[in-house]
Write a structure and sequence with these properties.
Length: 651
């Protein structure tokens, strides 16, 4: 038995709670941490065309990325997954035939463009490792030039100088849990280390052309400290966030002694402020909704910000001199209007517009002429997306009476009189600070087409409902609200019956949603009839011990400290309740996952096999935290749909 075939040292009767299992715990992460024979054993098998055909057709319905426009407005570069992997494409005019710029099996994305419009800075990742490298490519096309791509190192572009010669990037190549800042000359190809203090550092903003640097140091998953960095003295001047556990996002305003600060510090919801002389002045209205993000263009002319209105995105603009609202184009019936990148000269901004029944449309807005032009055309071959089911915002009560907002997709046949109830799949989002939102959702539509009612709750801990809701599940407080997961099933069983018959209910999710599926099937065993966990945590302690070092620092603020909160983490780990699992469970994992190590899936699957619980593990050897390749996406979705069809549709 190899180190991944774990054995329990203590197994009590099914009526008692297993204390933290003393097992031969795994260590490490990534494909190299797993015996090749184990990968071969759990590798995905092909599925029948009857299972995959509809999925392949649905995945052909897609929108390219929003894109970035050249300074003269004549070209656009964008990402598109039409080849099966995300690659970079070019348009030589609005709605022209796209030209493919990059290729291969490794996902490649646009990091930025040089101000002169001559070069692209690209980010390329290998097989889902999330250790991308930084590359340079002429905008006319051609071979990629490596700036830096090292094994087990994340390299991220931070800034490009006005003269298009110098770039700054961050990388954790000195220590795996710290990010240093480098300057790189695109002509001489020389790299110079400019900052290497311990911490997870990035460049939040730069005033002028390298006159003043605003540095961010992440101290938690949503917490950061901000400093001004003096290039000459190499000293840091504290600005905000020091000795606080508060959420801030900061950029320079229209003057170098004033900042724009997004924070929920002074109320329940995030609001945008001017910060000068240690004084905060609000510049967005006080409303019961979050300002979810903002950006100021390089010329410091306009601020674009987005409001999270119960899961719907509303775009607003402000003049930086008067702080008065600027009128934007209106888009009727849009679920989401999203701002992309504004050109360095401040003239063009890419916009994305999404509804529930059409793939996202991409536009370019010319601030000088106030002209809106659609550039990229989405594709929907052989599918009439106008027939897609629109999500309905509902809620269910938690056991303490708190209403949990929930988006529900009901197939037409399930809204009609039936003899038996339709099966239900409850899908929990990742994060945990994520948010399920309405809009164009191919994944939900596949379940709807297969006859499932598809449910997406935003349990406590989700983003978009104020800071009390967001922080309700931090560390040991998670024990107080984790029951929101069980309460969804309890409500459905009681209220969605047909002719006295209770619907069969499945639970699924990815990342933290995968953890939610595992906890729903273990701690709350019996509430769900089948479960699918995708890249989910089975043991929070082993997860924190083995996840990527820089991520461990960020996740402790969310999940809790392995020493201080040890008992709570044991009580919150699905593997603690392994003896309760009786219903069928499917586990899907990427071998290269740097967030949730593959050992999380292997350790619980081994225990389930020992107990002879009906379970299945699928490991993609060439994927990380979720599937990126189209062929693997088809299999991942296919396995889930086939699994639920077998276990939820049988009489």
């Amino acid at each position: 038995m190899n180190k991944y075939l774990l054995s329990l040292a203590l197994l009590l009767s099914s009526s008692t709670l297993i204390p933290y299992p003393v097992v031969a715990q795994y260590s490490g992460l990534g494909k190299n941490s797993v015996d090749p024979t184990v990968l071969q054993r759990y590798a995905p098998k092909p599925l029948a065309p009857s299972v995959t055909q509809n999925i392949e057709q649905m995945l052909d319905v897609r929108s390219p990325g929003l894109g970035i426009v050249t300074p003269d407005g004549k070209r656009m570069f964008f990402t598109w997954s039409i080849t099966g992997t995300v690659q970079v494409w070019r348009l030589d005019g609005a709605q022209q035939f796209p030209v493919q710029m990059t290729g291969g099996q490794d996902a490649t994305r646009i990091a930025s463009m040089t101000p002169d419009g001559k070069y692209l800075l690209l980010s390329r990742d290998r097989q889902g490792e999330e250790n991308p490298g930084l590359y340079l490519q002429p905008t006319d096309g051609g071979q990629l030039e490596v700036i830096q791509h090292k094994p087990k190192v994340r390299t991220s572009l931070q800034y490009i100088s006005d003269d298009s010669r110098t770039i700054y990037f961050s990388a954790n190549d000195i220590a795996p849990d710290s990010f240093a800042i480098y300057r790189y000359d695109l002509q001489t190809k020389k790299k110079i280390l400019i900052f290497a203090e311990k911490g997870i550092w990035s460049i939040a903003d730069i005033w002028g052309d390298r006159q003043k640097f605003l540095f961010s140091k992440a101290t938690g998953n949503i917490f950061s400290e901000y400093y001004e960095f003096d290039k000459k003295t190499q000293k840091l001047k504290p600005i905000l966030g020091q000795n606080e556990q508060e959420e801030y996002t900061i950029q320079y305003s229209a003057s170098p002694d004033e900042y724009l600060v997004l924070t929920p510090k002074f109320g329940e919801f995030r609001r945008l402020y001017r910060y000068k002389n240690s004084k905060f002045t609000p510049i967005t209205p006080e409303i019961k909704a979050d300002v979810s993000n903002f950006d100021i263009d390089y010329q410091r002319l306009r601020i674009l910000y987005s409001i999270n209105d119960g899961g719907y995105s509303r775009l607003k603009a402000i003049d930086t001199r008067t702080f008065q609202e600027i009128t934007l184009p209106e888009f009727a019936n849009a679920d989401h209007v999203i701002a992309g990148i504004t050109t360095r000269n401040g003239r063009y901004t890419s916009l994305g517009v999404e509804t529930s029944t059409a793939p996202r449309l991409s536009y370019v807005y010319d601030w000088q002429t106030n002209k809106l032009t659609q550039w990229v055309l989405p594709s929907a071959p052989e599918i009439d997306t106008r027939q897609f089911v629109v999500a309905k915002l509902e809620s269910y009560p938690a056991r303490d009476g708190t209403p949990i907002p929930t988006f529900v997709y009901r197939p037409p046949q399930c809204q009609q009189a039936k003899a038996i109830p339709c099966p239900v799949v409850v899908n929990f989002h990742g994060g945990p600070e994520g948010q399920s939102i309405p809009g164009f959702n191919r994944f939900a539509q596949l379940f709807v087409q297969s006859g499932f009612i598809f449910v997406e709750p935003n349990v406590r801990g989700s983003n978009g409902y104020g800071k009390s809701w967001l922080n309700a599940d931090n560390a040991s407080d998670r024990t107080k609200v984790i029951t929101d997961i069980e309460d969804a099933a309890l409500y459905i069983r009681k209220n969605w019956q047909v002719n006295g018959k209770v619907p069969k209910i499945g639970i699924m999710g990815g990342s933290y949603g995968g953890y939610s599926a595992l906890i729903g099937m273990s701690k709350f065993a019996g509430s769900y009839d089948a479960g699918v966990s995708v890249v989910g945590i089975s043991n929070i302690l082993t997860f924190l011990n083995n996840t990527a070092p820089y991520r461990r620092i960020l996740r402790i603020t969310e999940y809790g400290d392995p020493e201080r909160d040890r008992e709570a983490l044991i009580a919150l780990s699905p593997i603690t309740y392994i003896d309760r699992i009786k219903s069928p469970l499917l586990i899907i994992q990427g071998a290269n996952d740097p967030r949730v190590p593959v050992g999380e899936a292997l350790q619980i699957q081994t225990l389930l096999e020992n107990k002879k619980v009906p379970s299945q593990l699928v490991i993609f050897p060439d994927e990380g935290h979720g599937t990126g390749k189209r062929s693997n996406q088809v299999l991942e979705i296919g396995y889930a749909l086939d699994f639920f069809s077998k276990h939820l549709k049988s009489e």
